[in-house]
Amino acid sequence: MEHNIIEDYVEKVYGYATRRTYSRDEADELAQEILFTAVRELPRLRDCDRFEPWLWGLADNVTKRFRRDMGKRRATYSYDVLGDAAAEDEYFGGESGENERLYDLLRTKVAMLSSAYRDIVVLHYYDGLSTKIISERLGIPEGTVRWRLSEARRKLKKELFVMEDTALYPRKMWIEIFGDGEYDGTRIPFPDVYIEDALSQNILYNCYERARGIEELAKICGVPAYYVEDRVENLVNRRAVIESPKGKYRTDFMILSDKHEVYCREHAEDALEPVMDRLIEALDGIANEAAGIDFYRAEKSESDLYYLYGILAFEYMSRCLCRPPYPPIPENYDGFRWRYLAGEKRVDSSVIISTSRCNNTCSRGNCTHTVYANFGGVAYRPMMYYTYINACEDILVRGKTDDDYHAACAISDGYIEKRADGSLFVTVPYFSAERMSAFEAAAQRYLAPLSSDYSTAVNGFIAGYKSLFPEHLSDDVTRITSDMFVGMYKTVVEHAQRTGRITPPSDGFVCDVMVERKKR
């Protein structure tokens, strides 16, 4: 085995470490430990074909040991480092050994103070330093030291005699991003992996409806304040929370919850009622004209393709006829333009259609690939990598591809089938630019007369939806609700299915499409 094989896995190992730790420092430490152990143990591995499973098995064992050691280290730093101090008798007046439980509680409460108070309490009462020396060490006026000591005593007395210990009320959310960025989830992790740990999620959840300070968050989450401070610092750097002038923090992205689900289910169909029948009639007309367009159908039935025609038509209407506002996304800390989006659960909203699109911006990229899901009972699969798209395009346009490796990958993932005679069959419908122009002309004819009434109906629905979110997120809400001009297609489809106007899709039907870019 050559040691330089490990060089190809450095970034992957670091991505692995970030998903299993609570801070950048811990991720650095764990990644270094994994790589060091791999270099040390590599001579024992004789079969190079087993390198990757061996590496991740080794990483798993190192991580378990790392977590055990880190847990012990944290526990020691949390409370034991404070030791015993006369200050504890000041509160409890205890004889030796009589109030050990209260002493433990005091140390817990000290650990939950923010650093502005906690550091001074530890330096004064546990390290025995005078206010003058503390002032010099921390670089703040002595009067400020005395005032913070007084405030810390007040806070501790208030908390100590409320005997219920605080507890962690765990909130588990999904977090993702929308916008643009060059991430693949392996070599380049998506930004949300850096804020997905349990403590970060609970901070984000509890800072969402109103701004909160460090000590309040420590109390709510039931952990020492310095853990909260560490996580908040990361969340600020990752642009997930914003800090107010008063030292409080507010989550800076949308979190979807049951109330948004309830609103959509109760109001979406009613909002479209004035225009619903005309929309379905227009979709029927578009489907009839699309049936006469000579595009690559990938052997899909017209009843299944109806769902693809509909979503493409609604995208056209949103893009060319209604044009909802979409505030530009500001550049983020990594130079890309994206925003976070989260939820307590995967909201099966009446107005959210999952859209995954690879725009294929590589030098030879001529086609996009888009997958639509979460509506009408269609199935889901991930969007293609650009290399898969290029292989599929080669087969469709030239009848073959020279990129055997990525063609094999696309076969493995179901985008290409290898037939019994050895031919390659692309399983994704494909529109050339010319054929897509013909389709959009049909969409224009049928939907333009309805676009004004449709826009009025959707805007009325959106006005109520926006009121469910904090005001400081108005730009994000406008961006998300702009997708509702397309997403309302889900409401139309489900109404049409329920009333027998269209048949459900075939089992396993995936609503995806490749589209050639129009020449400029």
Level of helix content?
40-55%
Please indicate the percent range of residues in DSSP E strands (runs of 2 or more): 5-15%
The outline comes out as flat
Q: Give the strand order, joined by hyphens, for the main sheet.
A: 6-7-11-10
Instruction: Please give the largest β-sheet.
Output: 4 strands, mixed
Derived from helix and strand composition plus strand pairing, the structural class reads alpha+beta
Number of domains: 5
Count of helical segments?
20
Mean pLDDT: 85
Count of DSSP E strands?
11
Query: Radius of gyration, Cα only, in angstroms?
Result: 29 Å
- Give the low-pLDDT segments: 74-99, 163-168
Measured between the Cα atoms of the first and last residue, the distance is: 51 Å
Structure description:
By secondary structure, the chain is α+β, with helices and mostly antiparallel strands. It has 5 domains: 76 residues, RNA polymerase sigma factor, region 2, helix turn helix motif (Rna Polymerase Sigma Factor, Chain: A), CATH 1.10.1740.10; 81 residues, Winged helix-like DNA-binding domain superfamily/Winged helix DNA-binding domain (Arc Repressor Mutant, subunit A); 79 residues, Winged helix-like DNA-binding domain superfamily/Winged helix DNA-binding domain (Arc Repressor Mutant, subunit A); 210 residues, no CATH class; 43 residues, no CATH class. 52% of the residues lie in helices and 9% in strands. The protein is built from 20 helices and 11 strands. A 4-stranded mixed sheet has the order 6-7-11-10. A 3-stranded mixed sheet has the order 1-5-4. α2 crosses α3, α13 crosses α14 and α15 crosses α16. The relative contact order is 0.09.
